[in-house]
């Protein structure tokens, strides 16, 4: 009984301290310019980053494919450096005619800086582009 009570007190205390640390970190970094990540070391890969872009360049529908009327999504895996610039981009799924255009567009995009344990960090994530033929 006593061990479980001590464990409960410890967990509550550590949660309060962690909440205070997160509040301090969040106040140092405005949410419109930075994304705060957990301090756990194996979280360098995030999911879809479309909402984290400061400037997300949208690709033009390829003129050579207008007659085919193809449509669909392209997933582009990107590496973002500590300053929010796209270092590399590689399309991992989607119609092959759209892949190169999507890669070129995302390389011109800019993202919020990702902060882990108070330091800017590199992040790997995915951008999703949906291609719809023009009217």
Descriptive key words:
135 residues; TolA/TonB C-terminal domain; three-stranded mixed β-sheet; alpha/beta; 29% helix; 9 strands; four-stranded mixed β-sheet; single chain
What report would you give on this structure?
By secondary structure, the chain is an alpha/beta fold. The chain folds into 2 domains: 30 residues; 101 residues, TolA/TonB C-terminal domain. 29% of the residues lie in helices and 34% in strands.
Gyration radius from CA atoms, angstroms: 20 Å
Task: Give me the oligomer status.
Answer: single chain
| Name of the CATH superfamily of the largest domain | TonB
- Provide the structure class: alpha/beta
Order of helices and strands: HEEEEEHEEEE
Concise account of the structure shown:
This protein has 135 residues and is an alpha/beta fold.
What are the SSEs and their pairings?
Elements lengths: L1 H27 L5 E4 L7 E4 L4 E3 L16 E9 L5 E8 L2 H12 L2 E2 L1 E4 L2 E3 L1 E9 L4
């Amino acid at each position: 009984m006593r061990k479980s009570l001590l464990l409960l007190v410890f967990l509550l205390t550590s949660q309060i301290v962690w909440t205070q640390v997160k509040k301090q970190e969040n106040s140092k970094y405005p949410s419109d310019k930075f994304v705060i990540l957990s301090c756990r070391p194996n979280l360098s890969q995030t999911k879809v980053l479309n909402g984290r872009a400061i400037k997300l360049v949208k690709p033009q529908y390829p003129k050579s494919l207008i007659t085919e009327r193809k449509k669909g999504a392209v997933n582009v895996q990107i590496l973002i450096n500590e300053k929010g610039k796209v270092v590399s981009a590689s399309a991992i799924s989607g119609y092959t005619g759209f892949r190169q255009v999507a890669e070129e567009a995302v390389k011109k995009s800019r993202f919020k800086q990702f902060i882990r344990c108070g330091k800017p960090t590199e992040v790997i994530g995915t951008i999703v582009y949906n291609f719809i033929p023009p009217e």
